Amino acid sequence: MFLFIGDGLGMPQRAAATEFLKDCGTERRLAMEAMPVHGVTSTHAADRFITGSAAAGTAMATGVKTNIGCIGVDPALRPVATLAERAKGRGFKVGIVSSVSIDHATPAAFYAHEPSRSMYHEIDHALAESDMDFFGGGGLKDPEGKKSEAPRGNALVAAKANGFTVADTRREIMGLKKGSGKVIAVNPRLPDGKALPYDMDRNRKDVSLAEFTEKAVELLDGDAGFFLMVEGGKIDWACHANDAAAAIKDTLAFDDAVAVAVGFAEKHPDETLIVVTGDHECGGLALGFSGTKYATSYSLMNRQAKSHQAFFDDVFAGHLKKKGRFEAAMKLVKAHFGLAPDADGPLALKPFEVAELKRAFDASLRGETLKPGMADYMLYGSYDPFTMQLTHLLNRKAGLGWTTYSHTGVPVLTSASGPGATLFGGSYDNTDIARKIARVMNL
Length: 443
Description:
alpha/beta; 443 residues; 13% strand; 38% helix; 16 helices; 12 strands
């Protein structure tokens, strides 16, 4: 049983990735789009129409609606058994993989039971005490309890005492073999929030989401069968930041992981169910922009050399620290985004666009942290203004728009293939995903 959850993966994100490939001349159909069964899934939480990852993850992990921020508990904060726990109790091997920290809301919803997703130390100890077989992807956000009101000691030490092997280099991770026992596999590079880098920033030392999925399958496969949840978590992060290039490329990386499951299913067609869904849409991504009317050119995303995060961390932060001039910053813009007043075609900046960048540059120099309700929040969110204006400009020129820096309430698409896939057609709630999977797995 494979359950793939694209965090922030709404219908627009899937369509944008498909059109990006087409626009780049790549004859490839997304693995998730090629599945034979598709359904429309509502995402609301128990106490709010626009959900969050904790409530949505809990709904899909347990079949029970809960409140915003809750992990593995119902609205009365009573623990609810998860698919992963129930599968393990019935003898299945179980794996949890994510491109963000492995104690983040979505993965945590499958093994932890806490009133708040922010209780990372407690979630880390839930992981350490679990009998899951494989955790892979990002790291732990508070293993030592520095942010906890009741620290319990180092969770990684506790995990090792509970029989987990921790692998945190590419060589160690790729060298894991059957018989390695319980494993926590952590990418060697965690540039932000204990998460993997955006896929467009990945280097040769990193382990991709697809490679983590391959390794999980290798270690979990056997006569007992397995349940594997894989989250593409940084699709959501990119959409929060309105970074279409990073969102599209992380969606493609997520689809590469789905393709691993499809390859496995081709060898085991009668016993492999694959379900691909999203926990919610993020960013209010619009496939069309008033400035380009009906025209789109998503291949322009390839002119962005780094994600918004890597551009700020590796390039622009140093320029700000030195109090560099706007003219010098514009050279960085041309080098990393292809945008310039003297650029060719749609990448040419008009005078009003240069003025927008100058305003954003001045805001970055002031170093304000913007919050909802502040004058410039709708322009830049809580991100670096200059970096945000750059992604907005490139997105607009490609024919993409955004409505928010948060989630939206639009339904998501769920796709399925394999035995029981027909259950996932039609229109249903996210809690039904857990119930349908439980039915197929006889849980």
